[in-house]
């Protein structure tokens, strides 16, 4: 009976087989962003007058580390969006229709996103009266087409958190191009190329605090591509189940607790922890 109850809330997928583990990882990412980052920041603002954030110590790092839930989302997006392309190449699955691929992305994102933008736009203009209609309208149009970051080089005043969605959409557009790397037949060369891209991108963009774009987070998306490669090729880095369990627990601990702000070694290890966490969960 409980399984039937929860089955009603199962998310329906069409392009790939349903993986409940991915929803668990999504929850972890949401938990980090909402509870660790935003709620901790809110409590620090309300009760501690920003003293925790300004301390520069453990609690300051802990609050900011919660933002790593967003890169974890990027890793999962890289995995899920590249899976149909990986299956087509490695498992001789049906060829991906780019027309259907882009229509699906459009129909899945646009309706709720535009509704949210319109409601918030109306609230800013006519309820809170923080902006005038003419002043905020250009920002609305830029946000609708996911171009606010490119045009204004700042967060959207209507929906600031939409910057990550703009990055996602940029990856949606470029994913078919990135996935052409799967056509390299030599698996060692192919995976080494992905590892080089991950390493170079992570080092190059480390500690650069500007408004994000897809290339700034390319190492996370390519972690997802490498995970899809290993998954479709049925490669398990840790053959024994108990090894996989322990590595997964260490990766989870490192993802949650390892300091990576302003520490390159910690930042690179955090990327490794995200990769190993997803890999062991899917194994």
What does this structure look like?
- This protein has 283 residues and is mostly helical.
- Helices cover 71% and strands 0% of the residues.
- It has 13 helices and no strands.
- The longest helix has 30 residues, at 98-127.
| H/E topology pattern | HHHHHHHHHHHHH
Which word captures the global form? globular
- Number of separate helices: 13
Strand runs, count: 0
Radius of gyration, rounded?
Answer: 20 Å
The overall average pLDDT, rounded, is 88
Helix content: over 70%
- Give the biggest sheet: none
- Proportion of beta-strand residues: under 5%
Q: Report low-confidence residues grouped into runs of 5 or more.
A: none
Write the layout of secondary structure elements.
Layout lengths: L1 H6 L12 H28 L3 H5 L2 H8 L3 H22 L7 H30 L5 H12 L3 H5 L10 H16 L8 H18 L13 H15 L8 H17 L6 H19 L1
Give keywords.
71% helix; 283 residues; mainly alpha
Would you summarize the structure shown here?
With 283 residues, this protein is an all-alpha fold. The protein has 13 helices and no strands.
